[in-house]
Amino acid sequence: MAGAQNDGLSLKERRRRLAEQRAREEAAANPQGGPVNGVAATPEVPLRALVHNPRNARRNMEGVEGLADTYEAAGVLQPCLVIPVETYRAAFPEDAVELPETGYVVIGGNRRLAAAHRAGLATLPVHVNIKLKTRVEILVAAATENIAREELKPFEELDTIEELKAELGTYDAVAKKLGKSGGWVSQRRRLRHLQPEVRQALETRAPGMTIELARDLGKITERDEQLKAWRAAQRATQLATNPAPQKKSKKSSKVPAQGGSGGGSGTPLEDPAAKARREACVLAVAAGAGDLARLSIIAAKAPVSADDAVALAGQWLTETAVGSSVLNVASLPGDEGTDRQKQGALALALAHCELHLTRSTDTDSTHARAYADWLESHTDYQPIDAEPATA
Asked: What is the C-alpha separation between 225 and 231, in angstroms, rounded?
């Protein structure tokens, strides 16, 4: 029997037989044909009897073509969750005009239904849930499946939250129904405040834009300030990916080239000491660990341009995927992002120290020794005694 699976049958045929076997086992376990935990198993339903959920949160069902190819080759393994049309019409009478008189409405699996149509299938496996009756129950069932499968885009999640809030009355109630925290809901609600330009950047996944950055920008309700913060994040991304060329220093390699926007990759090759320090800085920012209080005191004694320090710190934060938006003053209030804010403060303090040392000729000063000692204590940094650069 061990070789029964190697009987020459195609994968699609073997899976079809397995589905039939499971259906027979379910029927044997439930001979009366009644529902099990409110869900009645129906192995296959004609596609003509299935309709899309008019309130499906997914606006664009991506990947349908690839899923259809899979169905053609191997069949459909994951059943759709459906409810009778009459149940849906009773819960949402305003949508009745879009629905047939009989059949089933797909609550979970609208992309599977679209792919089945594209693949030319005649039937689709489903689970018929007869417990879902009310508007809230149906909306929550659709939302939890989509969110659990991470199938919704950020603004689709926001629309789902707002629709549930209209039914439940409060966002706290929405969070409880979805099994999420209040902070999870609050983060997504921030997207309501995004300016059109920033919203488009998120929808198109513009370089430098992440969902974390978008949520931070959503804290900034004033239009000009939000756009300014987004442009700053874009500049930080550009600096990280395309460091500006720096002029060669005419001094000893122990005196790094002037300039405040270079990270490890932007440090002149003739200055391995500065390169090693900046690589250590990136590691420290990524780890988010270290004696921040001590470093802050050292940084306070390093007078450099605030704009230069923010630019360099923003580059490091972008490289480590923390996001330069953590340096935006308008995004600091609130009870979230404490760890990210610590990393932001760490990056900014390191940037002050690094720029000061880069532009100073006194590399043996008390300040320089304190900065190097901090790096040695909290990273794998080892001082490099670079030889003078040749002319």
From this structure: 10
pTM for the model: 0.47
Q: Which residues pair with 123 in a beta bridge?
A: 46
Alpha carbon separation from 336 to 15, 233, 314, 339 (Å, rounded): 47, 20, 20, 8
Are the beta carbons of 264 and 272 closer than 8 angstroms? no
Q: What is the pLDDT of residues 19-74, one digit of tens each?
A: 556 555 544 544 444 444 444 445 688 999 999 998 887 766 767 887 888 787 77
Tokens of 21: 């076997």
d(CA 238, CA 230): 12
Max CA distance (Å), the chain? 92
Tokens of 11: 């994968």
Residue 106's SS3 state is strand
Nearby residues of 144 by Cβ (< 8 Å), 6 or more positions away: 178, 179
| Residue carrying the six token digits 């991506």 | 62
Strands of 162-210 (E only): list them.
none
Encode pLDDT of 246-282 as tens digits: 444 444 333 333 333 344 434 443 577 888 888 888 8
Please answer whether residues 128 and 26 qualify as being in contact, where contact means their C-beta atoms are separated by less than 8 angstroms: no
Alpha carbons within 13 angstroms on the beta-carbon side of residue 73 total 6
Give the whole-angstrom CA distance, residue 201 versus residue 194.
10
Helix (H) or strand (E) holding 115: helix 110-119
